[in-house]
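re: that complex we talked abt at group meeting.

here r the seqs, copy pasted straight from the sheet so there may be weird spacing, ignore it
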Amino acid sequence: MNGPAYNAWRLTALTSLPAWALVAVGLLLLGALFLTTRGISGEPSRGKRALLTTLRAAACLLVFALVLEPGLELRAETRVRARIALLLDTSKSMRFAAAPAASKGAAPLSRTDEMLRWFASQEPELRALASRFQIDIYGFDKELQPQDAQKLGALAADKSANHTARTDAFASGGSTDLLGGLEAASRAGSGGRPLAGLLLASDGADNAALAEGMNKGAQEQLAHLGAPVFALPIGGAAQKDLSIDRVRVDDFAFVRSPVKLTVRISARGFSRQTVPLTLRREGQIVAAQNVVLDGKSPFTEAELSFIPDRTGKFAFTVSAPVYEGEAIVENNARSFVLNVIRDRVRVLQVVGRPSWDERFLRQLLKKDPNVDLISFFILRTPGDDSHSTQDELSLIPFPTNEIFNEQLRTFDLVIFQNFNHRPYRMSQYLDGIAAYIRDGGAFAMIGGEQSFGAGDYAGSPIEEILPVALPSPADPHVDEQPAQLQLTDAGKRHPVTELLPGAAQNAALWAGLPKLPGLNTIASVRPGAQVLLQSTDGRPVLAVGDAGQGRSLALLTDSSWMWSFVAAGEELGPRAYESFWHAAIRWLVRDPALTPMRLQSERASYEPGEPIQLDAQVRGSDYGASAGAQLSVQLFSGAGGAMQPFAGPTAGADGSATVQIPALPAGAYRAQVIARTPAGAVAGEAEEAFVVAPAGAELEDLSPRPELLEALAKATGGKRISASDSLSSLPFHDPERVEVGQRTTRPLWDTWMVLAALCAVVGAEWLLRRRWGYA
Amino acid sequence: MSDHSHRPSRRQLLFGGLAAACAALLPRRARAFGEPSRLSFALLRHGGRWDVRPEGLPRLSWEVSRRTSIDTSPQVRPLGPADPELFRHPFAVLSSDQAVPMPSEAELAGLRRYLTYGGFLLVDDASATPRGPFENSARALLAAVLPGAQLKAIPREHVLYKSFYLLDAPVGRAAVAPELFGIELGGRLAVVLCGNDLLGALARDPFGSWEFDAAPGGEPQRERAIRLGVNLVMYSMCLDYKEDQVHIPFIMKRRRI
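got the structure back, here u go
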């Protein structure tokens, strides 16, 4: 049969006898030889003696050989080549520049390109090596993956328009683990080939075991590799680069309270100098700080602080200027999102005269830990005679300018409770108050005999922001018919009048509250406003509405205190009063939990190049679902401010819609979405903020670290190489190994020639012995 | 037969029509929402002599209305402590010149609820006798209404002494008790015990003159008693308003009497 080609042979013994048996046989044969020698020692002829001894020895040998059962082993041997592993860094840090741009305006060469060009230029060297070794090519970042040499060559030579996209796809690893990559490469390889050496091309920006530099444990692991590493640093020597590595800030902050950020800057290649840092909110500078680099240590920390003046979610960017010759430009800015919330609601309560209504409201608000109450009560009017000098009174002048002009915008909610403005010369401030509300403030007017129409507000700017129109001066301002409460349809849905969760129980609770002794009158309800409570004979009691960006509430009675005290006397408890006012305040100041329209980003942070998705739930200000509402989207970027608005989707039957935003460049963004009804009126508004930033530690410290690669190479007995070094001349280990594939044996002793030889020798000896007289 | 004297003349008609038209055009002066919106005192009925100073509270009402912006009603409603109507009058007064019999359990419970949910009670000793029958019975009654609550002396710095007037000492018709005593519930004075017959200083006799002399200070003392009454009412309506930060610098600057 034609077997495989056997290219080597050797002699072997096929006996199955154990070693001691062979030794015993050998000794016996030696003994026989010795006896023969003694037996013929008397023979005078040397030649005869020699011949007989030789024949006897030959016979013994032949017997021994027979016992041994000699054979011929045929082998198919192959020489195994050692292997070299070539590791190419495919982590994201390789996308960045290897060196500053050659000229202004030109794109700098990326590290991936530098690495691929080196690979392409080394093709002849690699072919030369391939004749002696097996070359395995891998890409590594946090894991090892085999690469195809042809594809790499094609990528290196590619000069097409989307070359950058292709190289970015190549360099996409989330982290760099040099030690892990080397260890995996040393263990891999087909058929257990011995490792002759490792070639490593990387920028050295490790973020695993070697993130802080070489250490003892790593050195030991490297020594165990058993082969030298030749490292090629990509990115050259440490270049000039300034980067904002980290920004530490809380996720949320309180409005009107200082916010602190800690910024870590790393600077390589900078001498001692001052770097200005700026913090921008949607294009506007909110804080700036000069940071001094000492030129010695690469890391510096700085603190920035500012005081947010508005609640909401905002996009911020911390940036430093880009200096001449900087290798990487993208890391001079970092963006984040901050959610600014109010800590306490600041309420201004202005009261025309002390009353039980004022007293129970003050008591409720003072007790509430979430409310910071500032009250002003008019304790004496010009018609009152206190029968004393001014010094004997604890009264203070009513500081109208301070509260309605200077401090107005520090309040979250302004309440006028049975307050007529005219005696205090406030007409000059009413415009400002209306503007404050339209800009996002909140206002509540509580009734009484000098409130609403009787407060001289008809025709004033205050009337314009109220949810009701006031009666003309000639009409009666109060209606003294007692009013039993009834929840309207709008009131059944609205969070302000939700005292209890169940609709039926809620309506019953309102209907069971004590009658109000009288109500303020109104001319009409404004379009867009809602009446939530009315008397059983249809007179409005409570109306709410939006005014520009703000909200207002009109409570047309001065006896809501009865929902607390009188209700307690009737064993209903004071909870209705407390729940109502708590809900009213939260709704007025736009507590996020009560917002009708919701906008939620799918994620807080997106990768560059990823599309962004925001989920919207559109409900109108009457809290009913707004089907068919058309959404429009306005984006604000952290660094640049307002961007081009665009049209969004239409809300479905249940008011839900998904806003898709195409990929944006890195930075922080705030999206403001406005929903309009098919008729064109604004149904709702909401905002959300998110960050587009490459995630992960890989991009925190991008600087190349050639010194790390050099230390790594030295620890294994290799060295650092440069791009021009010839690969084939490097001192790789070359443990040649022979591997035996197929083998087969052919026995030699069972050919008839051996037996014939034995017979001939024994026969000859016996003949000669007889001739010469030895029996 | 026509009677010219009964039919109004043309001039009269014209004037009448003009007057009516003017009346219609004049802005209707806003009237209060009726009694419930005005301060109106409740006088607690008890088993003993509960109305010994009938003119005191109406006069206090008048003084408060005259001196401050508070809108008051001169009506005083006598109510039992268990009457739910009591809750329409968050300021109640308990007064007598003799011992007050202990009310029933239901009445104690009603009074307890009244005070806990926000009511204010002025306990006035018409006999002006420290540790006398009235004061002892009143203390026992209060201990039964609010067990566990302590009747403590009200310090001079308390906002009650600066809620409208800046006051130094509590006086009434008499000046025998140097301190007011009070019970605080949740940081608010719910009960004030006055041992100097405050209402006696305000009472007028049927002829319109003061029923009692104020001793030993005379008319200046009466004025100070009226001021204490006003402060009590103002306190019950404004609570600790005068302790808000904005007032403090002004109050510190002024002298107290």
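couple things i noticed - Residues 83-237+704-729 of chain A form a domain with the Rossmann fold fold (CATH 3.40.50.410). Chain A touches chain B through 56 residues (CB under 8 Å).
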